[in-house]
């Protein structure tokens, strides 16, 4: 079974669905999450301007929710560390893991927006570069990972952390992707692995890519989301590349449909590596 990395301190009282769905996803998964230690401020500085990190943590600058809430700051130490811990787990043991987290890819080097404060993708990937040469980041969120692009450019890491996103050097979400079969998705990822030879993959299994998502950026049916997940996991497993996935995007009301998309990914993950 796919291990899930989640800490109860990730939970906050904010009503935004992306916050509320995560503990519910973990509860409905029926499994006990793996424990880990929270990040320290120095961890955030590995992807961000230290002055920006200091001001957010001192509640002098708005977080990605546009609040000055210390409870959210506490949660950020755990949500970002969830990704870091899952990455370290797969680098040590191989295979696959789930980080029950989101709220990363709009976090820029020195500012934040769109419910993203610190870029847990870049932080975890940069730490992984101590152990592997290249990280392939497949950002299946339906929106562009503009914060990730900005961090990688500012850190001069864009040639070692390859970001595949809605608009960029490597694009996911082209019109033809809505018709992709499992083998088409596998070929798409096989090609990326062949060109970049990653030692680690991080996959944002974005649920807002669902075509009925209310944010209207989606391009995949519920079944097509499953084909995408199957193709990504089959390619990673076939090449022996360790993979961590997380729960980006997804704004359905009621939120159960978004949770169902994430549970589908978990089920496919279990089957692919079972
Ligand atoms: Zn999104």
Q: Any overview of this molecule?
A:
Helices cover 43% and strands 10% of the residues. Helix 4 (70-93) runs parallel beside helix 5 (120-128). Strand 3 (135-139), helix 6 (146-154) and strand 4 form a beta-alpha-beta unit. It has one domain (4-8, 16-272): Arginase, Chain A, CATH 3.40.800. By secondary structure, the protein is an alpha/beta fold. The chain has helices at residues 17-29, 41-44, 50-57, 70-93, 120-128, 146-154, 182-196, 222-239, 256-272; strands at residues 4-5, 96-99, 135-139, 161-165, 170-171, 200-204, 243-246. It binds zinc ion.
Give a quick summary of the entry.
With 274 residues, this protein is α/β, with parallel strands linked by helices. The chain is 43% helix and 10% strand.
Give keywords:
7-stranded parallel beta sheet, binds zinc ion, alpha/beta, globular, 7 strands, Arginase, Chain A, about 270 residues
In this entry the ligands are: zinc ion
Largest sheet: 7 strands, parallel
CATH class: Alpha Beta
Instruction: Give the overall form.
Output: globular
The total domain count is: 1
Q: Round the Cα radius of gyration to an integer and report it.
A: 17 Å
Q: Architecture, CATH level 2?
A: 3-Layer(aba) Sandwich
Blueprint of the fold:
Blueprint: E1 4-5, H1 17-29, H2 41-44, H3 50-57, H4 70-93, E2 96-99, H5 120-128, E3 135-139, H6 146-154, E4 161-165, E5 170-171, H7 182-196, E6 200-204, H8 222-239, E7 243-246, H9 256-272
Parallel strand pairs: 1-2, 2-7, 3-4, 3-6, 4-5, 6-7
Helix pairs in contact: 1-9, 4-5, 7-8, 8-9
The chain binds zinc ion (ZN).
Residues 141-143, 208, 249 line the site of zinc ion (ZN).
């Amino acid at each position: 079974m796919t291990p899930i990395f989640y800490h109860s301190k990730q939970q906050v009282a904010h009503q935004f669905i992306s916050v509320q769905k995560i503990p519910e996803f973990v509860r409905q998964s029926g499994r006990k999450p793996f424990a880990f230690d929270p990040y320290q401020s120095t961890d955030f500085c590995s992807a961000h301007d230290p002055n920006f990190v200091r001001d957010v943590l001192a509640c002098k600058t708005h977080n990605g929710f546009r609040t000055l809430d210390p409870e959210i700051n506490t949660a950020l130490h755990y949500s970002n560390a969830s990704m870091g811990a899952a990455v370290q787990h797969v680098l040590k043991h191989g295979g696959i893991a789930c980080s029950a987290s989101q709220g990363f890819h709009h976090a820029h080097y020195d500012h934040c927006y769109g419910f993203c404060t610190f870029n847990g993708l870049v932080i975890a990937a940069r730490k992984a570069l101590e152990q592997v040469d290249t990280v392939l980041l497949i950002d299946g969120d339906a929106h562009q990972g503009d914060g990730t692009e900005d961090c990688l450019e500012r850190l001069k890491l864009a040639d070692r952390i390859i970001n595949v996103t809605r608009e960029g050097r490597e694009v996911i979400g082209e019109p033809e992707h809505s018709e992709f079969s499992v083998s088409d998705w596998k070929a798409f990822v096989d090609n990326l692995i062949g060109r970049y030879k990653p030692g680690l993959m991080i996959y944002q299994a974005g649920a807002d890519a669902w075509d009925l998502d209310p944010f209207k950026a989606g391009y995949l049916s519920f079944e097509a989301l499953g084909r995408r997940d199957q193709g990504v996991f089959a390619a990673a497993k076939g090449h022996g590349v360790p993979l961590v996935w997380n729960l980006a995007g997804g704004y359905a009301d009621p939120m159960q449909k978004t949770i169902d998309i994430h549970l589908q990914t978990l089920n496919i993950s279990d089957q692919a590596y079972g």
